[in-house]
Design a protein that fits this description.
Number of domains: 1
Strand order of the largest sheet: 2-3-4
CATH class: Alpha Beta
Distance between the termini: 15 Å
CATH topology: Metal Transport, Frataxin, Chain A
CATH architecture: 2-Layer Sandwich
Helix content: 40-55%
Number of strands: 5
Largest sheet: 3 strands, antiparallel
Shape: globular
Order of helices and strands: EHEEEEHH
Number of helices: 3
Radius of gyration: 12 Å
Amino acid sequence: MSRWLPCSRKEFIKRLKKLGFTGIFHGTKHDYMFYGHNRLGIPNNDEYSVNELRMMIKEVDVLIGHKISADEWNNL
């Protein structure tokens, strides 16, 4: 079983696109991506810590309708 690892912003966006998210749209404070009609804010940090990543993955879980494991995330 894999563990969660820190992730760069660029890698995070790339993996979200593999999950079916579209764009990277620029807002006033944060960028965002869409999954269907649902919007996910993308923080502007260059790298996300494990805690930040897990918090954002919980939001992604809700949007896509299933829980993403560390193994699945690391294999995207």
